[in-house]
Amino acid sequence: MKIAMISLQDNPSTALHDPDARGRRRHVATLSRELHRLGHELTIYTRRTDPRLPEHVRVDDGFEVVHLPAGPARPAPQEEVVPHIGEFAQCLSSRWDTAAPDVVHAHHWISGLAAVLSARGTAIPIVQSFHGLTGGESAEIERLVGRGATGVVATSGQEAAELARLGVRRSRISTVPWGVDTRLFVPTGPTTPRTGRLRVVATGDLTPQDGLDDLIVALTAVSATELVIAGGPDRRLLDRNEEYRRLRALAAAHDVGGEVSFLGHVPHSEMPALLRSADVVACPQRHASFGVVALEAMSCGVPVVATAAGGLAESVVHQVTGLLVPPQNPTLLARALRALLGDEVRRQQFGIAGQDRVRIRYGWDRVALETGRAYHRAAGPEVITTQRGAEPVYARMRRALSGDEGAPDPGVPTG
C-alpha cells in the first residue's frame, strides 16, 4: 500500500536517531518505519523549516520525507503556521494529481485540515489521528476535520468516545494505542544513581495538568521516600519556568523540599535508566491521552501508580500492573504509594505483569499491524469517500479558519 503521512508541524526525518525526540515526532517516524517493515511504501510530508533543507530526504529507516513550503522557512508556532495551511494543501494536491497515494494518514488537526483540503474532489481516503483532542479554540476545526476524514484513529477508548460526541461516526473510528519500544525499555540495564531511600519517579511537561502538585502533597504522607521529577526545560533553565517555581515552593511549604528533585529535560535515550531506578513510577495527570510513560515504565518492569484519567485508565490494569486512583486526590494517591512501596513482592508481581502486557499489546509491530487494518478499513468500498457530500464540510472549515461566516479564508484553496 502506498501511504502518505502528513506531519505538518513535526518533522520526523531525524527523530529515530535524535535522543531528544519524543511525542508525535517520534511516533510518526517509528510508525512509518514499522509500516515499511510490513511492506508498505511510505512518504512523509512536512513543512519546510529551513531553506537549506532539500525537498526530498531518504531516511535509512525505509521512508522518504518531503519538505513543502508553508509560511516562513523556519520553526514557527502553530498560530503562525495556520494561515499557510492552504499553501501546504495546494502543494499536496498538485503532487497527487499525478501520483495519488492509496491512503493518507494525517497527524494532529493542523495536518488533518491540510490533508482533507488537498483531497477535495477525489476518492483518496483520509485517516486522521488527533493524538488527543485539543478542544478550546480548536474544537470546531477538530470536529470538522474528524467528520471530513474517511476514518479516524483514536489512541484510547476515551478519545473514541470524545470523537463520537463530536459527531464522528463510530463506524469510522478505529482505536489503536501508541506503541512502546520494547527493545529500548527493558528491565535490565544501567540505572540512574540513587540514594538509599525508596524512589518514586514522575515525568511531565511542568504544566498544572501534570498533577505534580497532588503528588508533592501526597509525598508528605509517605515516609523515607524521594521523588524525582523529569521533564520541562533544560535543568539550567528551570528557574525561568513558572510551574517549576510553584512546585518548588509547594514542596518547601509542606516540608518535603529536600525529598523532591527536578531533573529538567531528560533525553528519550536516558529515560529507561531513570525509570529502572524507580521503585514506583507515578502518573498523577489530570488528563492523559495515551499514558505512554506508564507503558514505558511497565515495559521496564516497574509498577505504576496512576490516576484513572484518559488513556492511563486503559494502560494500567488496576491490581495487576499497578494501582489506579481518582485524579486530584492526594490522600488516595499517598495511600496507593504506601501500599506498593511497603510491599516488595507485590511490586515485583506488578512489574512482571506490566512487562508482559506491554510486550503483547503495545509493541510497535502490533501497533503498525492494527494501523494498517485501519487504512484498509478506510479504503474499503463500504466507507463514504472524502468526495461524496464533502462540500458543506469544506465550506464550514473555511469559515472556521477565517472567523468570517460570509467569506472563505484566503489561505485555503477554494477552487
UniProtKB/TrEMBL annotation:
Its keywords, alphabetically, are: Glycosyltransferase, Transferase
Q: What is this protein called?
A: Glycosyltransferase involved in cell wall bisynthesis
Q: Which InterPro entries match?
A: Glyco_trans_1 (IPR001296), Glyco_trans_4-like_N (IPR028098), Glycosyltransferase_grp1 (IPR050194)
- GO terms of molecular function: glycosyltransferase activity
One Pfam family named in its UniProt record: Glyco_transf_4
* Superkingdom field: Bacteria
User: What biological processes does GO assign it?
Assistant: carbohydrate derivative biosynthetic process
Question: What sequence ranges are listed for the domain Glycosyl transferase family?
Answer: 196-356
Q: Domain Glycosyltransferase subfamily 4-like N-terminal, which positions?
A: 25-183
Name the species this protein comes from: Lentzea fradiae
